[in-house]
C-alpha cells in the first residue's frame, strides 16, 4: 500500500510500504477514506523537533473496517469509523474519568510494543488499529461524501477545540476569547457557541480566517496582540477581560496573551501543545485568581457527544478544510499548511 | 491605643499609636475583640520579605463597631463584625463575580490613598475600616466567647481553605489530598469534608497536626513527601492520584507535590501565596490534563455561606488556634508560630 513518510525536515514522500495485518486479537484493519495533516505534523516538517531517520507520519483519519481480530466485539467489518489521534481501551479508570489520552493501556500511533508493534497513523491507504473496540467510534447508517470532512475533524481538531471550551468551563452567557486562528482555534469558536457563549472574540489577523471565525460564531474580532490586544478584549468585556479564554496555539506568547486577556476569577482552557514555553507564570495567575486547565485533548470521549451535531449540520467544522488533495500529493499538503496557504488539508487515498 | 509594629525581622513591638478616626463617609471604627497572626506575617518576621522601617502589621480581626461614617447604610454601631483580610465594596463587577480580592475600588490593610489613607489591620485595639458596608459582615444575635475563635477564622484561614476546595472543584464522593498542615491546610480539610469528599488525605508529618487533621475529617495521613509521598497518595486512590489536591503552602516543592499527586484530569486548588516558585511546569500539567486554579482567596464572599456552620458548631475551624495571648505579648505570638510551637495564635486586646 501507499503511505506517507517523513525523511527529514521538508522532505515528505509517499512510498509503497507493507500492508498492515492483524497483530493482536483486538485489532481492526481500516481502509482509510480520508486523512489530514495536523498543525503538530509541521513541527518535524519545520525541523522544530528532530527527525531521526525516515518514518511514517499522520494521526487523524476516518475509514471503513475491512477486518477485525477474534476478540473484537463492538466494531464490525463494513463499519464507517472515526479514529481519535491516539489508541485507548475506553474502559480503564482514566478513560472512565474522561481522560482517555491517559488510558492505562493505550498509546500513540506509530509503535508501541504492548499494542502489537507498529501501527500506521492514517496518512496512508490502510491502518491497523489496536484496541479497536475502545479506539474506534462507528458511524452507522448512510454517510454522504460531503459529511466526511466534518466527521474527520472529530478525530482531532473539533474535539480539541471542544476540550479547550470544556476545560475553561464555558457556560451559557459567558464571554469567551479565542487565541489562535488555526483549525483548532476555529473549532474552539464552534464549541464556545455550542456551549452557549454569547460574546465570542476571535483573536485573528488573517482576513480569510476572520471570515470563517465569523461564520463559526465569533461576535467580535481582535487583530491586535500584546498589550493592545489585551486592552481590546477588556473593552469588549466590561473592562475586566473575558470570562473564559481558549488558548489554541501553544507558545509562550500565546499563553501570556491568554492569561492576560482573562478576567479575575476566569479560566484559561489550553490545548496548544506547549512549544517553547515550558513554564506558566504563577503570580499573574495567583494575584487575579485566573485558572489554567486543559492539556492533550481526550477527543475519543467527545465523539459521541459531537457526532449528532456534525451529522445534522448544526455545526460545520469540516469547513476548516480549505484544500483537498490526493494522498500522492501529501508533500504539497504539508507545504501548503507550512506556508499558510491552507488552514488544513484533507488527503484522500 | 496599642497596636503591633514590626521594626525589623524578629523585632515585633506593641506600642502606643494614635486612635483611628473616621476619614471617609464610608468608614467604620471597630473595637477589636480578637485578632491573630497569619502565616504570611512570618515572611517579614523571618526576613524573607524586606521591612523598610517600622510599620503596623496584621490583617485578620473581629470586633464591635463603635462609630460609622455618614454614608454607611448596612453596618450599625454595636454590630459584631467579621473583617476579611482586605477591603472591598462588595458591589463591583469583580465582587459580583466572586473575586472580591480584585475589587475595583478595594485595597489592603495598611495605606491606600483612595481609601482614606492608612488603615490598621487588626493587631491593635481599634481599626478604621474603609468601605465598611462592603468589607464587614455583621453577625447579629448573641455571640458566646467560645464562638469568637471560629468567627475569627472566617477573616482568612477558613475562607482560604474553602477557596482551595472550591477552586479545585471538590464534589461529593471525590478523593482529595491536602498539601500543607498549617491553619489553612487544616481548614481545607474541613472544607473538603463539608463539600462531600469521601477520601481525604492529609499530607502531614507533625503528630499534633495529624491529630487535628483527623478531627477535621482526614480519612488518611501521608507523612512522606516527594516521590514516596506521590506513591502513597496513588496507593490510596486506585493507583492514579487524587481527584483534587489542595495546595496550602506556596513553595515550589509543595506545588510540585500537589501537581504530581493529582490524577489525570484532576485539579489542583492552590491558595499558598507563591514564595520562591514563580513558575508552574506546563508539561506535567498538559500531558496529564491536570488543571491549576485558585489564588488569593476572596474570603469576603464566603463568610455568609460558612457562618451558619461555624455558629452551629457543624464545623470547628476555631480549633486551629492552639495558643491565645494578650495583645501585649504579640512578640511571643510571632515567635511561637515561627518556631512551630503553635499552629496559629489568637491575640486579645
Automatic annotation (TrEMBL), chains A, B:
Residues 7-347 form the Enoyl reductase (ER) domain. The keyword Zinc applies. The keyword Cell membrane does not apply. Keywords: Metal-binding, Oxidoreductase, Zinc. It holds the Pfam family ADH_N. Its cofactor is Zn(2+). InterPro entries: ADH-like_C, ADH-like_N, ADH_Zn_CS, ER, GroES-like_sf, NAD(P)-bd_dom_sf. SUPFAM superfamilies: GroES-like, NAD(P)-binding Rossmann-fold domains. One of its GO terms (molecular function) is zinc ion binding. PANTHER family: DEHYDROGENASE, ZINC-CONTAINING, PUTATIVE (AFU_ORTHOLOGUE AFUA_2G02810)-RELATED (PTHR42813:SF2), ZINC-TYPE ALCOHOL DEHYDROGENASE-LIKE (PTHR42813). Belongs to the zinc-containing alcohol dehydrogenase family. This is Enoyl reductase (ER) domain-containing protein. The lineage of its organism: Bacteria, Bacillati, Actinomycetota, Actinomycetes, Micrococcales.
